[in-house]
Design a protein that fits this description.
Helix content: 25-40%
Distance between the termini: 54 Å
Low-confidence stretches: 1-23
Number of helices: 8
Number of strands: 19
CATH class of the largest domain: Alpha Beta
CATH superfamily of the largest domain: Zn peptidases
Strand content: 25-35%
Shape: globular
CATH architecture of the largest domain: 3-Layer(aba) Sandwich
Largest sheet: 13 strands, mixed
Oligomer: single chain
Order of helices and strands: HHEEEEEHEHHEEEHEHEHEEEEEEEE
Bound molecules: zinc ion
Structural class: alpha+beta
Length: 353
Amino acid sequence: MRLMIRMLPPVALLLAAAAMGHAADIAVGTAAARPGQKATGVIRVPAGVDAGVEIPVIVIQGAKPGPTLALLAGAHGTEYASIIALEKLARSTDPAALSGALIVVPLLNVASFLQKVPHLNPVDGKNMNRLYPGKADGTQTERALWAVTRQVLDTCDYLIDYHGGDLDENLRRYSYWADTGNGRLDAASRAMVLAFGLDHIIIQRNRPGDPNPSRATTITRQAQNMGKPSIAVEAGHAGTTAAGDVDALVGGTENVMRQLKMLPGTAAPVEHPLWIGRYSVIASDRDGIFYPLAVPEAYVTKGMTIGYVTDFFGEKIWEVTAPVSGVIIYIGAVPSMKKGDNVAYIGEIVAEP
Ligand SMILES: [Zn+2]
């Protein structure tokens, strides 16, 4: 091989090397990895109507060919367990053992993380998982999402989006699988969600023409619109980074990588998961102090008291009751309760779809 290359004229050699290098590189932002390499860099979002931001990204290209899987956490920058899980996974993944490539964005919402502001990007007050595909000339959130759409979603074949209970949320681990009506897409994402292994799965009905009252486009919905199988997973709560939550996210991701043939071995799909067909959101109709009387994963029946709100003198002003029978997916974790804030999600169990 070496002798043959030496015999080529220099210009042909350069062209061949350039072509090979170009074909072999996977680049996202300033991170470019050749086969068998791991590269770190940033997705640069230039300043526009407000400040710019640099979003960290890791590209890991396996020594062998295979699909490209994108992993994104920290759209909500204080959902810490998911961010720590991707930090850990990106460090521990060995490119020599990998087929295909990982694009890891461990912390999308940098300002939320640094300033400890839950739910929103404090730079523009917008939610970084509602406004895909973003806008090239919008505020920072919109420009960042536009960069993710063009640089991460355009490049990947599959996507996992990571969340968890935020600073004020107590939740049990669960995942989301979308019923889009596209058989190929839905079968692929269903295999991913079962391989990931969380035993509570919320079904999102994302068929074209279905009502989308919030008009929100999450990253998984955007990926599905682009024909790319995607799931969302949630673990961790209220500022914690418990090993059990982090390990569930890392182990689940590695199982999806096995299922996609990116790692050797097989992934046993979770058996008999609980499928949640609908969930009801309870929002507070008062300002006050919240006292929960139920925990995530508890089964409640319609009308059951799951908590109460008092005024600032301790007088009970609102009894929070379950509007449906089901399982508590999430319930407020802190006493602060502002009118309009979410108090709890209750999921209704359905038969396996
Ligand atoms: Zn989130």
